[in-house]
Write a structure and sequence with these properties.
By secondary structure, the protein is an alpha+beta fold. The chain has one domain. The protein has three helices and three strands. Strands 1-2-3 form a three-stranded antiparallel sheet, with helices on one face. Strand 2 and strand 3 form a beta hairpin.
Amino acid sequence: DPKDEHYKAVVHTLKYLSGTCQFTLNLGRNQLMHLDSQIYGFTDSDWGGGTEKKSFSGLLVYFHGALGWRAHKQKVVALSSAKAKYNALTKSAQDLSWIKQSVYE
């Protein structure tokens, strides 16, 4: 059942969308040609953003378009933003390696 925090999250999302609706991202066929034959991963992280001071990581995978995404809390507390990004990159490389093996086999 929806709770108060769910309602607040929906309101927050709607406010964000209404405040950013004038922004667009236009990608034509020429810009996406290089994405057609290879797997690409885009990753990022924050440093100690959670209440437990653990960093969060995210990954977006492209293969002939968006294939999947993942967001998670890192298992260890990073002592710097560089370490948080390194942790995110390491996990993303492992995930992309598995995806590549699955796709090309």
